[in-house]
Amino acid sequence: MTGPVHKTRLLIADDWQDYALLDSGQGQKLEKFGPQRLIRPDPQAFWAPQTPIEDWQAEARFDIKAGDDERGQWDYRGIQAEPSWPMRWNELTFMARLTPFRHVGVFQEHSVHWRFAQAQIKRVKRPVKILNLFGYTGLASLACAAVGAHVVHLDASPKSNRYGQENQALSKLEHYPIRWITDDAMKFIAREQRRGNRYDGIILDPPKFGRGPKNETWRFEQDFPDLLAGIRALLSPEPLFIILTAYAVRLSYLALSQTLSDHLQGFGGVLEAGEMALAQTGSDRVLPTALYTRWSAMEV
Fold first, then answer.
1. How far is CA 229 from CA 113, 139, 232, 263, in A?
2. Which of 26, 99, 108, 143 is most buried when burial is the number of CB atoms within 10 A of its CB?
3. Contact 139, 163 (CB under 8 A)
């Protein structure tokens, strides 16, 4: 049986008006999120910054807690920073937030996938059902719903789902069909298989390590193959796409795409893989952010 055609590509999120990567280097990055400038650590920014870091101007800087890769605290640098504020991407409105985990409520590099999913949904003239696993604050779910898809959004964090519902209201999509579910991804997949539910598109953004609402554990390198086997069983007879991103894992994008390809024999289509990145303002430099692989039945 034939499998998909493989392609390699660098995806650069350059379609923002409310976000900009202003500078990066020496393990730090200076970003503009709407009206606020933030300094956050980034271990991939080995190079020298365009402007000395001590000259960067920002409303807040995130300082990593000793011995912890994610947790820390925000230093407001004597400037009054807002704890949350609205931002826009195309037709979507959402809240950015300063969190204890250096994240701000949006992974802006994912806009390349939101646009891709919207194009795939719009090209078919039939009802489309999307599953968004590890969905965080719901921007991918909102992007799909905005162009007519029925969406099931799942995250293990009740707080993330509440933020997603707030973003849905801000985007004036309250009456669009999105189900917000708090659950463990693997348990949910198993139940959906038993129920016979099927999806035309599946979006996956699993963490390196995570816990479910009942303290279930997720480890990427251990659970990733079972995750792909599970979602393969949830695909509709004529699926449109699968989108997968991975952060901070000791894998190549080739490992992701070849593993996904094993589960797509007989579907044909196009399997694309590579890195995601952010373009730096006033420079030809890009900041790598994540690995990805995505499959589509038809290239658009």
1. 22, 25, 5, 7
2. 143
3. no
Contact 193, 231 (CB under 8 A): no
What tens digit of pLDDT does each residue of 127-149 get? Answer: 999 999 999 999 999 999 999 99
Contact 146, 91 (CB under 8 A): yes
| pLDDT at position 78 over 60 | no
> How confident is residue 67, by pLDDT bands cut at 50, 70 and 90?
low
The two structure tokens encoding residue 28? 């730090």
Q: Which helix (H) or strand (E) holds 122?
A: helix 111-122
Q: Work out the angle between the directed axes of helices 220-232 and 253-262 (0-180°, nearest 10).
A: 30
Backbone region of residue 126 per phi and psi (left: phi > 0; alpha: psi in -120 to 50; beta: other values): beta
* Helices vs. strands in the chain: H and E counts, helices first: 6, 18
Q: How many residues comprise the chain?
A: 300
pLDDT in tens, 237-259: 999 999 999 998 888 999 999 99
Give the torsion sign (CA, 270, 233, 134, 218). negative
Q: What is the rounded distance in angstroms from the CA atom of residue 268 to the CA atom of residue 270?
A: 7
Distances (CA, A) of 222 to 51, 209, 225: 41, 10, 7
Give, as one character, the DSSP assignment of residue 91: T
Listed residue (177, 166, 95, 169) closest to 144, CA to CA = 177
pLDDT tens-place string over residues 187-204: 999 999 999 999 999 999
Burial 210-247 (b: 16+ CB within 10 A, else e): bebeeeeebebeebbeebbebbbebbeeebbbbbbbbe
Q: Give the predicted TM-score (pTM) of the model.
A: 0.93
